[in-house]
Amino acid sequence: MRSRLIAAAAAVLVTLVAAPAYAIDHSKGRPGFCPTATGVTVVVDFQELGGTTIVRCFPSAARGTGLDALKGAGFQIAGVQRWGEGFICRVENRPSAVEIIPAQGKKNYRELCIDTPPGSAYWSYWHAGNNCPWVYSQWGVKNRDFIPGGFEGWSFSLNRTADTNPWPRIAAVRPGSTTGHCDAPVEPKPTSSNPNEQAPPRPNPPPRAGGDDDPEQPPAADDDPTAPAATSTTLPPPRPRASASPTAGNPALNAAYTGGEGAPDVNDVLREQSGASLLAAWVAGAAVLLLAAAAGWIAWRRNRARQA
Amino acid sequence: MFGTYFLPRDLHPAAWWVWALGLATAASRTTNPWLLGLIIAVACLVVVARRGEAPWALAFRLYLVLAGFIVTMRVVFRVIFGGAEGSTIILRLPEIPLPAWAAGIRLFGAVSAESVLGGFYDGLRLATMVVCLGAANALANPKRLLKAMPAALYEVGTAVTVALSVFPQLAESVQRVRQARKLRGGTGKGVRALRGIVIPVLADALDRSLLLAASMDSRGYGRAGVATTRARAATGALMVVGLLGVCVGVYATLDGSTPRYLATPVLVAGLAVAVAGFRAAGRRVHRSRYRPDRWQLAEVVVAASGVAVAVVMFGTSRVDPTNLNPSLITLSWPLLSWPPLLGVLAGVVPALLAPPPVLATPEEVPA
Amino acid sequence: MITLDHVSFWYRGAGEPVLADVTLTIGEGELVVLAGRTGVGKSTLLGTVNGLVPHFTGGHLAGTVTVDGVSTRSRPPREFAHLVGMVGQDPLAGFVTDTVEDELAYGMEQLGVAPQVMRRRVEETLDLLGIAELRRRPLRTLSGGQQQRVAVGAVLTMHPRVLVLDEPTSALDPTAAEDVLATLARLVHDLGTTVVMAEHRLERVVPFADRFIYLPGDGSVRDGEPAAVLAGMPIAPPIVELGRLAGWSPLPLSVRDARRRAEAIRADLAAAPAPARPAPTSPEPPLLTAERVVVRYGTTVAVRGVDLDLHAGKVVAIMGRNGSGKSSLLWAVQGSGPRQGGTVDVAGDDPGALPSARARKLVGMVPQTAGDLLYLESVEGECAAADRESDATPGTCRFLLDSLAPGVDPDQHPRDLSEGQRLALVLAVQLTAAPPVLLLDEPTRGLDYTAKAALARQVGHLAKRGRAVVVATHDVEFVASVADRVVVLAEGEIVSDGPTAEVLGGSPAFATQVAKIIGPDWLTVSEVDDALKAAR
C-alpha cells in the first residue's frame, strides 16, 4: 500500500511538472470522420459562439459512454463543479470564463462552470446513427452508450426553446457509406428522474444484405452518370421509396469543419485570458510561508511571556 | 493622536466581525487554492497577533481542526464515491460491486487527480469560510457583541446572554448529581437512572432561574418607559413590515428571475422602514450603557481592510474570473494574477495597525 | 424608613398566614437582624420590603408596607430598585453578567444612570468593598466571600436607602463572614444605609445589631433591643446562653462586654474540675485507614498525601477554609470521587475499587447539597427506594427517619421539607445501608440552632452505637459540641490533628465564643453548666 501511495504521489508530481497537453489531445482519436463502422464520430459545432466546427473520430471497438467518446476523440472538456463531468459546460475551453454570452434574461453572462448552465446558453447533446437524422439525446452523457459507426453531436444552444435547439450543422453521414437509410433503433426515454439510471443496451442491428460497408453505392440524391442504363430485357432497379421517417441531412450542406489540428493550446489561452503571472503564484506560496512563520513566532513569544 | 492609537484595548466586536465577514465573502467567490490558503494564513496571523486571553479566544485551534476535517472528508468522499472523472488516474482501487438497486453509485474504483483536486478545492473553500468565522469568534467577545445590539433588541440580547450562562451551569449540575447518584448505589440503567439525574437537575435549574428572575426584578430590569399601547403597536407594526420588505428584497436580489422592481427598491424601502421601527422602539427605553464600545479610527481601519478584500475579489471576478475558479480541464498548477493576490494581502492590515489586546501578563520578558 | 402596618400574608392555597398582623417601624440608618427557625417566615418578611412579596411570589397580602413613603402595593419591585437593594442567599444564582465590573454596573444600567456617574460609582464601590483587584475577573472564579461582596456591591452602586440581605454569611467560612459583616457595619455607620438582614448564626451578628426582630413561628414578631429580645428567645447564641446561665443582666452582646463581666464565673470555674473529654482515638484498630491520599483536578492538587484513621465510636471534625480540600478528601475516602493516589482500607476492602452499591455499605456519605440524592415524589417513595437499594427489610428507612426527625408526613414532597428534615431524610436513606463509617459534608449549612442541636444529638447516638462519623464543617460551635477530634486542612495537607480542646482552644480563628470569653479550657456552655453544677 505504501509503495502504491508513493507511486501515486510521484505520478501526480510528474503530471503537474510535465509539459501541458495541447488543446486537442492529439494522442487520442483521429481527425475527420470515422472511415469504418468501428468507433464513433464526434462532431462539435460552436454555432453562435464562433469558431470552426471540429469533427474527430474515436476509433474504439469496445463499447463506451458518450463521455468516453468525447474524451476519446481528443476533445478537452470541463464539467461543472457541482456535477463533475455529468454535465459538460466547456468544450475546448468554449465558452471560456472571460467571454460574455448574450444569454436572454441575464446581463453580461459568463459561464463560470460552477453550477448547471442556464437553458438559454448550454451545450446540447445529440446523437445519430449513420445516415440518421440528429436526435436530441434524452440521456445524459454518462448514461448512454454511443452507437458504433454512428455519430455523437455537440451543439451550443443559445437563446432557443426546448423545441428549437439547433442540431450540429454536419450531416450524420459517414463518407463512403451508401446504405442510405437509418438503421439505428429509437432510444427509449428515461423512466425515472434518477440521474444514475442508465439507458438499456441496444439490440444488435439486423444483418443487412451486403452489410454496411458498401462504398460503391452512391447516396440516392446524387446524380449518377454511371447508373446502368435501363435495358428492355431486365427490370429497372427499384426506385428508392420515400420512407416515413426523416432522413439524414445533406452532407453537401455541411458547415466548414476541421479535424482540430490547428487549435491553440488551451493552457496558453487560459493564461492569456486571465492575465496570470507565474511569479504571482510563487509570491503567494512565499507569502503563506512567511505569514505562518510570523504567526508561529508571535505565539512563541507570547507563551514565553506568559510563563515568565 | 498616534500616541493613543496604539494603547492596548479591546476593539468594538462589530469591527472584527466586519473584517472576518469580508474575508469570508472573498473566500466564497473563489476556489483558487493559492488565494484560499493565503486567506487562511492571513486570518491565522491576525488572530495570533491580536487575540486576548479569554477562554473563547483560545478556542481558535478547534476551528482549524474543523477546517482540516472538512477538507479531508471532501477528498475522501470523492475518492470513495466518484473519483474517475479525469484523464490522470493516480490510484486504482478495486471497485466494490453494489446490488442492483444501487446501480448508479460507484464505490472506489479508479481515482483521478482531477476529481481529488476538485474535491480539495471545494472543501478548501468551505474550510476557509469556517476559519474566517472562527477568527471572528476568537477576536471579538461574543457577550460584548450582544451588548452592542440596538436598544430595541435589548430583551432578546439579555435572554441570549442568560441562556449562554445556563449551559455551563447545567453541565455542572449534571456532574454533581451524577456523583451524588453513586452515593445511592447508582442503581440500574434506563429510565429510572435517567430520572434520578434529570429530576434533581431540572429542579435545581428551576430554582436557580427563579432566583435569577427575582434578582433581576429587584435590580430594576424591565422598567418600562411611558409609551402608550398605541405607540407600542405602531413600532411593532413598523418593525414587522420592514423585516418583511427586507426578506422580499433579498430574495428578489438573489434570484435573477423575479421582476426587477421587487429587488432593490423593495430592499431599500424595507431597510428604511425597519430602521425607523428600531429607532422608535429604542426611544422608549430608558437604559444607559456602561462603558460602551466606541467606533474609533482603529475600528474603521480594521473593518475597512475586510471590506477592501471583499471588494477587490468582487472586482477581479468581473475582470478575470478564470483564476478565481481554476479549471480542471488539464492538470496543472492553478494560475494566479496580481490583483486578487494583493487584495487578499490587504487583510493583514489589522495585525499591524490594530491596537494590541489587553493582556494580563506583559509582552516583554523582563531582563 | 420602613413601615409595616398590620401586615398579614398568606401563600396561595395555604390556610395559615405566614405573617399575621405584623406592625413594625424601622428607622433610618439602623442595622436590624431577623431571627427565627427555618421556614418561619424570615424570607417572606424580607420580601415584603421591596415588593417581591406579593408581586413576584404570588399570594395575598393584607395591610400596607411603606418604604420611604412609597407603598409597595402600587408598584412592582423594579420600581423600588433605586430605594431597596436585595441580596439573596445564593449570590452566584443572582448574577446576570460575566465579570465583576459588569455586574456592578448592571443595576445602574437598568436605572438609566448617566455613563460618567456609572463609572464613578463603580470605582467607589470597588474601593468600599475592597474588591478593586478583582474587577475583570469572571464571577464564577471568585470565592464565596468575594462573590458575596460583589453581590452587595452590585446593589450598592444604585445607592439604595435600604439594604436587605437574606442569610449573607451562611456559605462563608468564619474569616470571610467577619469581612462581610464588617463591611455592612461600615455601611451603616458611614453611609447611613438601613440594613435589614436575616441570619442563623447569630453569634457573629449580634454585636453589630441595633434592633432585633424575632419570629416565633405563629406569625407575629417580637421586636426590640437585642438584649431584651434575646433574653426571651428559646434559641440563642452561646454568649446569650452563657449570660443566662451566669445571670448577667442586661445580657452582654459582644465578646468584649462578656469578658469584662466574666471575672466571677472564671473564679468559680478555676475551682471546678476540668471537663471530662473523650479521647480522640481509641486503642482498637481503626475502622477506616486512609494513607497518602492524593486528589488532583487537572493541574490543581486538592489533597496532598493525607493520612487519616477513623476509629469506631469517635466523631472527627474536618475544618479548613473553602478550597482546602475537605470535600475532595471525603469523596475520595468514600470511593465515588476521584483518587489519584494512596490507599483506603475498610475491613480489608477498598471502597474505590468496589461497585458503588457495595461501597455505600462500607462508607456512607451525605454530600453538601443533600437534595441531589432525592428524586422521587414523596418521602414514602424515597424510603421504599432506599430499602430496595440497600437490600434492607422494608421499613428500615422509615424507622430511621422517625428516630432522626419525628413528625415528617410520609406523603409530602421531599422538596417541601425544611432543611433539617431534608437532611434527616437523606441521612436515613444513607443509614439504611448500615455502613460502619459515615461522612457528612457541611451538614449545618442552613440549619437553625434547634436543628443543629438535634443533629448533634443524632451524631452522638450514631457514634455511641459504634460507628465512625466524620463531619466537615465551618461551624465552630457545632464542632465543639459534637466532635472528639479535629483535623484542620489547608491547601490539601493536614495542618493540625488532635483532640477538640487542643485544636480549638488556642487559635483565635477557631475559638468558640465561650472559649473567647472564659478561657481556652472551656468550649461549650454545657461544659460550663456541668462544671458549675458539679462544683456546687
Please describe the structure with a list of short key phrases separated by commas or semicolons.
heterotrimer; A: 308 residues; alpha+beta; seven-stranded mixed sheet; two-stranded antiparallel sheet; elongated; B: 367 residues; mainly alpha; disordered C terminus; transmembrane (chain B); membrane (chain B)
Give an account of the 3D structure.
The complex is a heterotrimer of chains A (308), B (367) and C (536). With 308 residues, chain A is an alpha+beta fold. Chain A is built from four helices and nine strands; from the N terminus they run αβββαββββββαα. In chain A, strands 1, 2, 3, 6, 7, 8 and 9 form a seven-stranded mixed sheet that branches. In chain A, strands 4-5 form a two-stranded antiparallel sheet. By secondary structure, chain B is mainly α. Chain B has a domain at 2-147 and 294-353. The two termini of chain B are 31 Å apart. Chain C has a six-stranded mixed sheet with strand order 6-7-8-3-9-10, with helices on both faces. Chain C is globular and about 70 Å long. Chain C starts with a strand and ends with a helix. Chains in contact: A-B, B-C. The interface between A and B is large, with 61 and 55 residues.
Q: How would you classify the helix and strand content of chain B by structural class?
A: mainly alpha
Give the low-pLDDT segments of chain B.
362-367
Number of strands of chain B: 2
Structural class of chain A comes to alpha+beta
| Discrete helix count of chain B | 14
Identify the overall geometry of chain A.
elongated
Separation, N- and C-terminal Cα atoms of chain A: 48 Å
In quaternary terms, these chains amount to heterotrimer
User: Biggest β-sheet of chain A: count, sense, barrel?
Assistant: 7 strands, mixed
Kindly report the greatest chain-chain contact and the residue count on each side: A-B, 61 and 55 residues
The strand order across the widest sheet of chain B is 1-2
Using the CA coordinates, give the radius of gyration of chain A. 26 Å
Please give the largest β-sheet of chain B. 2 strands, antiparallel
The overall average pLDDT of chain B, rounded, is 83
Radius of gyration of chain B: 27 Å
Instruction: Please give the number of β-strands of chain A.
Output: 9
Task: Spell out the helices and strands of chain B N to C.
Answer: HHHHEEHHHHHHHHHH
What percent strand of chain A? 5-15%
Membrane topology (chain B): Multi-pass membrane protein
Subcellular location (chain B): Membrane
Organism (chain B): Asanoa siamensis
Keywords (chain B): Membrane, Transmembrane, Transmembrane helix
